[in-house]
From TrEMBL:
Record-level GO BP terms: methylation
InterPro entries: DNA_methylase_N6_adenine_CS (IPR002052), SAM-dependent_MTases_sf (IPR029063)
SUPFAM superfamilies hit by this protein: S-adenosyl-L-methionine-dependent methyltransferases (SSF53335)
Protein name (record): DNA methylase
Taxonomic lineage from the root: Bacteria, Pseudomonadati, Pseudomonadota, Betaproteobacteria, Burkholderiales
An example Gene Ontology molecular-function term: nucleic acid binding
The species this protein was found in: Simplicispira metamorpha
Amino acid sequence: MPTLNWIGKDAVVKHHKNVPFRLLEPVPELSFRPADAGNLIVQGDNLHALKALLPRYAGQVKCIYIDPPYNTGNGGRIYSDNVNSPEIRQWLGEVVGKEGITFKQPPYALEL
C-alpha cells in the first residue's frame, strides 16, 4: 500500500501523546442529577476532552460525537480535518472500547 511521508509527519501523528492530561470540571448549574445520570456531555477541545476521559473511562465510552472545531478565533477559516491515521483510530479505540461508536461531523454538512 502506498504511503505519504513528509518532514514532520511523525510529530503530527504522535501529537496526541504530547498533550497533557486535563481534569474534567463539572458545571453543577448545567447538570441534571449528575450523580445518577450515568452520562456526560463534555465541551472542549476534542483532544483535551478525550484525554480527560481516559483515566476514568478508558474502554467504557459507548458513543463519542466529535464536531469540527468552533470558538477557534479563526473567523471562518477552513481547516483540514483529514486525520484518519491508524494511530489516531487506535487511540480513539482506547477511549471508546469494543462496543462503542465514534461520530464525526464533517464541516460541509452544515453548509447545506
